[in-house]
Design a protein that fits this description.
By secondary structure, this protein is α/β, with parallel strands linked by helices. The protein has a single domain, classed as Alpha-Beta Barrel (TIM Barrel). It has an 8-stranded parallel beta sheet with strand order 7-6-5-4-3-2-1-8. The protein binds pyridoxal-5'-phosphate (PLP). Pyridoxal-5'-phosphate (PLP) binds next to strand 8, helix 9 and helix 10.
Length: about 250
């Protein structure tokens, strides 16, 4: 299977999930997660019409952003606050915002001429120690404050479900996230119209619940190189390590 074949398969799954959920087929956008993938893989996806790409590691991402400036770039990894300036400068979206300190830094460093940085707040509903994200309690303050920052445009919530959830339990989990997001709109003082729930293995359940973005890596690009580049600080590996344990 080529990247082009994989992309059509994933688009077919999204299409079918939208129909099954009674949602318009353009209600869900596909974020191709290209972390650890070489520029040639991105080239293949761009040639197949893919416009949005997600990256977890800043250094790894910067050369790809330079090579494909016409693409829309999403940062989806753990954020060290000393990286906030570069992230705010080079990306169009951040899906993994979970602290006020980082929110303020992204706001400060977002260049005026780039327009607002679109952000999702990552939530860790199950309070899993192995994952990033704000708790349900932290979220209230975070939403209120983030919504006030003039250079940030709050989209909604992002989450990675616990690995153990399947079937009805997974559907319940996504439904809880959607309820939580709707409940936060009064605190944000605005409609939160986007959700970033759903990955390669659970996109159907996420779309059924109402997600508007799905973040798909392996189903498009195949297995990832598990090792990070040697110049990558150990901390940047955490998300990848954590999350590979989810998929074994
Ligand atoms: C890697 C990653 C993905 C993609 O996961 P797949 O299982 O390969 O589709 C999605 N979201 C986040 C936050 C990731 O780190």
């Amino acid at each position: 299977m080529t990247i082009q074949d994989n992309l059509s398969k994933v688009r077919g799954r999204i299409h079918a999930a939208c129909l099954a959920a009674g949602r318009p087929i353009d209600a869900v956008q596909l974020l191709a997660v290209s972390k650890t993938q070489p520029p040639a893989a991105i080239r293949a996806a761009v040639d197949a019409g893919q416009s949005d790409f997600g990256e977890n590691y800043l250094q790894d991402a910067l050369e790809k952003i330079l090579a494909f400036p016409q693409a829309t770039w999403h940062f989806i990894g753990g954020i060290q606050s000393n990286k906030a300036k570069e992230i705010a400068t080079h990306f169009d979206y951040v899906h993994s915002l979970s602290s006020l300190r980082v929110a303020r830094r992204l706001n400060t460093y977002r260049p005026q001429h780039s327009g607002k940085l679109k952000v999702f707040l990552q939530v860790n509903l199950a309070a899993e120690a192995s994952k990033g994200g704000a708790s349900r309690n932290e979220l209230t303050d975070l939403v209120g404050e983030t919504a006030q920052l003039p250079q940030l445009d709050l989209q909604g919530l992002m989450a990675i479900p616990p690995a153990s959830l399947k079937g009805a339990a997974l559907n319940d989990y996504f439904a809880q996230l959607v309820d939580l997001q709707v409940g936060l709109e009064s605190i944000a003082g605005a409609r939160l119209s986007q959700s970033s729930f759903g990955m390669s293995q659970d996109l159907e359940a996420a779309i059924l619940a109402g997600s508007t973005w799905v973040r798909i890596g392996t189903a498009i690009f195949g297995a990832r190189r598990t090792q990070a580049a040697p110049n990558m600080p150990a901390t940047q590996n955490t998300e990848e390590t954590k999350e590979s344990s989810r998929y074994g």
